[in-house]
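Exercise 7b. Backbone tokens:
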């Protein structure tokens, strides 16, 4: 994964499928804990599968970002992965954008 600083308070994370997914999210959690108030935009374009462990890590990341008064956007969700969010009801908990540019714009405007 690559974690890119988009600005002083926005980080872009390009996620990959497991087993790298877990490492990616762990790195993002550390970044949020270290930097404090920061917004995170996650690019899911390379993610084809989510398991329960991945979902738990995403929920923890969401909690950390919101506790730090930041914003979290999930972008470029593949159809199969979107189905997981719908079935679990997480589509009502997370905020989604169609693509990374709209995700970055969304957190800047919030």
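Sequence design result:
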């Amino acid at each position: 994964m690559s974690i890119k600083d988009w600005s002083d308070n926005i980080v872009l994370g390009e996620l990959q499928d497991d087993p790298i997914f877990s490492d990616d999210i762990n790195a993002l959690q550390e970044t949020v804990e270290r930097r404090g108030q920061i917004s995170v935009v996650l690019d899911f374009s390379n993610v084809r599968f989510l398991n329960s462990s991945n979902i738990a890590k995403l929920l923890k990341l969401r909690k950390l970002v919101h506790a730090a008064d930041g914003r979290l956007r999930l972008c470029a969700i593949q159809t199969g992965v979107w189905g997981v969010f719908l079935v679990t009801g997480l589509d009502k908990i997370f905020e989604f954008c169609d693509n990374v540019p709209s995700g970055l714009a969304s957190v800047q405007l919030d």
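Instructor comment: The CA atoms of residues 3 and 66 lie 19 Å apart. Helices lie at 20-35, 52-67, 79-88, 100-109.
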